[in-house]
Amino acid sequence: MPQEKPEPDRIRELEDALKEAERRVAEMRAERDQAFELVEQMKEHVSDVDTLIDSWIEAFEMQLSEDRKRTRDALPESIKKLLTDAVALQKQAKGLGKK
Q1: Domain count, the chain
Q2: Are the beta carbons of 35 and 45 closer than 8 angstroms?
């Protein structure tokens, strides 16, 4: 039979093991807290990016196509109006040059 350690040595050994376990638990809790913080930062980043993309969709008047992709087949109405006005001004300027 293995020789058992004297009582004070065994208690000291168990106390050391307990301290090591408590240290590891504290270390794991710190890692968990860091992971939770990183997850929160990532959620915030994704939310910011979603907001940015939504603003682009609105600014470029993009539509969802049948294949579930965003497209902007036509120019935004504000740009269409500017182009129409520019073409009208060019025609007007050409007409002035012929007189």
Answers
A1: 2
A2: no
